[in-house]
Amino acid sequence: MNKKKWAVGAAGILMSLSLVACGQNDKTVVTTNGGKITQEQYYNKMKQTQQGKQELQQMILNKVLEHKYGDKVKKSEVNNQLKQYKSQYGSEFSAMLQQQGMTESQLKGSIRDNLLLKQAVLAKTSFTDKDLQKQFKSYEPKVTVKAIPVKDKDTAQTVISELQNGKKFDTLAKKYSTDDTTKNKGGLLPPFDNTSTSVDSKVKKAAFSLKNGQYTTEPVKTGAGYEVIEMVKHPSKGSWKDHKSELKDQLATSRMNNSTTLHNVVSKVLKDGDVHIEDKSLSNILSGYVDAPKS
User: Fold this and answer.
1) How many CB atoms sit inside 10 A of residue 269's CB?
2) Which of 13, 46, 147, 236 has the highest count of CB atoms within 10 angstroms of its CB?
3) From the first residue on, what is the mean pLDDT of each consecutive set of 10 residues in the chain (295 residues)?
């Protein structure tokens, strides 16, 4: 399948700031032959940097989001998204983590942060019937398919010919597929819908046109080559009223890509969060999101 960039970014710097006054408990962070660096020195230095301020803003937001929406984001939801990344990248997963400067645990944390923010978007923006009906026009329920990606059109055509001659899709996947992650599973892919970003748009379009048991009779050109697709399970679309929850979820995901919407949502969340900045030198850390700092 076509490889995409991480949908969830790194959470910023790996070192977090402590808002607790150091005072008598000022611990030594580093010792050198030129002297020591204390927790207070490190804290005072980091809070003056733009990177440190952005990290602190994110920490404040995450605390408020976790308190308000933590019970709405299940561990299983985080783990499922992690599994999708692992399935998408296969043997390249560890290398991608390293490239992003992340551990698997940090990626899970970023996924959870993203899901918490999505819950805030669901709670703090409105979804009219008109909005839902418009989204329904492009909506497709999650389908389950098998796919055989190959490098060239001739090979894809060979796969189709063999299918037409009665060969099993699973057998041909093992023989021809270039995807080591799925070839021994008969080409089975994780379920996807119209919003899935890990699936090539042309693959989605071809898949949504198939009925259960049907396969593509023409090679599907993708960014990485060609594919042959077989539909395993294609649920009925029904009416928009049957999918209000899914439609809201899709709209919320889309709205998270709108900087103005996100700014408004974050502002509302922080205003409801009863945030008190104890360090006077950081009193304006949330300016632009809240009207006046609390102290």
Assistant:
1) 23
2) 147
3) 40 34 70 93 92 92 96 95 84 91 94 96 97 97 97 97 97 96 92 90 96 97 95 96 95 94 95 92 90 53
Measure Cα distances from 9 to 114, 193, 284 in Å: 9, 22, 26
> At 168, which amino acid appears?
K
In three-state secondary structure terms, 147 is strand
Instruction: For the chain, report the end-to-end CA distance as a whole number of angstroms.
Output: 52
Cβ atoms within 10 A of the Cβ of 151, count? 12
Q: Which stretch of DSSP H or E encloses residue 225?
A: strand 225-233
Q: Write out 34-95 in H/E/C secondary structure.
A: CEEEEHHHHHHHHCCCHHHHHHHHHHHHHHHHHHHHHHHCCHHHHHHHHHHHHHHHHHHHHH
Residue 115's CB: how many other CB atoms inside 10 A? 18
Query: What Cα–Cα distance (Å) separates residue 178 from each residue in 155, 183, 192, 203, 230?
Result: 11, 7, 20, 16, 16
The long-range contacts involving 29-36, CB below 8 angstroms and separated by at least 24 positions, are: none
Q: In whole angstroms, what is the distance from residue 182 CA to residue 1 CA?
A: 10
Assigned token pair, 19: 């808002």
Measure the CA–CA gap between 243 and 195, rounded to whole angstroms.
14
- Provide the whole-model pTM: 0.76
Using CA atoms, how far residue 267 sits from 35, 62, 111, 257, in Å, is 43, 13, 21, 16
What is d(CA 5, CA 42) in angstroms, rounded to the nearest whole number? Answer: 33
Sign of the torsion angle spanned by Cα atoms 195, 201, 204, 210: positive
